[in-house]
Write a structure and sequence with these properties.
The chain is of the alpha/beta class and about 325 residues long. The protein has a domain at about 1-170 and about 225-250: Rossmann fold (3-Layer(aba) Sandwich), CATH 3.40.50.720. The protein has helices spanning about 10-25, 55-65, 80-85, 85-105, 140-160, 190-200, 225-240, 260-270, 295-300, 310-320, and strands at about 5, 25-30, 45-50, 70, 110-115, 130, 160-170, 170, 205-210, 220, 225, 245-250, 255-260, 275-280, 290. Strands 3-2-1-4-5-7-12 form a seven-stranded parallel beta sheet, sandwiched between helices. It has a four-stranded mixed beta sheet with strand order 6-15-10-13. α1 (about 10-25) links the parallel β1 and β2. The radius of gyration is 19 Å and the shape is globular. The chain binds uridine-5'-diphosphate. Uridine-5'-diphosphate binds near residues 79, 170 and 259.
Amino acid sequence: MKNILVTGGAGYIGSHACKALRQAGYMPVTFDNLSTGWADAVKFGPFEQGDLLDRARLDQVFAAYQPIAVLHFAAFSQVGESMQEPGKYWRNNVAGSLTLIEAAIAAGCLNIVFSSTCAVYGDQDGVVLDENSVHMPLNPYAASKRAIEDMLAGFAASDGLNAVIFRYFNVAGADPEGEVGEFHRPETHLIPLLLDAIEGRRPALTVFGTDYPTPDGTCIRDYVHVMDLAEAHVLGLKWLTDGKGSGVFNLGTGTGFSVREVIDEARKTTNRAVPVTEGPRRPGDAACLVSGSVRAEAELGWQAKRSTMKEMVTDAWRWHQTGHYTR
Ligand code: UDP
């Protein structure tokens, strides 16, 4: 079995990608510092604890496993936090990625799949975005991801690095088989927070802003099922090992849901009331982020098979009631 180094493999998207890799016949080797991930989410291959900023540790892991590619998920990813602590994002995300890329190149591993974000596009007046839309990052999180994209392009030119860049839209849901799921502490994401509110684990979900220039005044996002996203990574890996070089792909569904629409779907799917309060806008949030995935469909053969709001909420709800991790 060929080894794939998965940074952030103990986190939400990384753990689902490890499952998809293993199902596709690869051995995922998780490299994670457990700052936001969970050791018991590492179920599909070996675990190497370590920090992206620790070059010696990275060199050791590359030498031990000789991976044919890196799937690079490890990053801080909260928009709100990045506005308050930008240094954390530049250090961990940008300097950490630089250390990783240099270690990979030194080890002769020239294939990388990188988790970027739709947030690089900023706010563009409700247009459906594509990969050629201009970049206008609104917060240090998005700016850090954009900087890493530029870094990858530089190393592609200088060292022959091949990079598949995925710009994710909003990730939701959980492994339908219940082996892994979403578990952040603290939780900041819409769907797990509203499921917490339904269960009475928090008093209410606060809607961040009701005065956006959208039909119901709340932010619109394009939600993608985490297993669909995980499968995209396997296709991205195949693209690289087939020698197709670098590529940038948006991963969205082309359909946007407002915060109020997500709440309505959760109410219907769980058949429970969602306690809601209304609050001010969250700094750094775009009004609307929606993309089609024409390129990923045409060139990678990717399809968002599970990404209906009903299926995402159903899988998240099932995991929410049964799944948890421990440190
Ligand atoms: N949101 C909200 N209340 C919350 C958390 C999120 O209204 O407690 C909104 C947020 O403003 C955004 C959407 O839900 O418009 C999705 O936010 P999330 O943090 O889940 O993902 P992001 O868009 O930041 O990647």
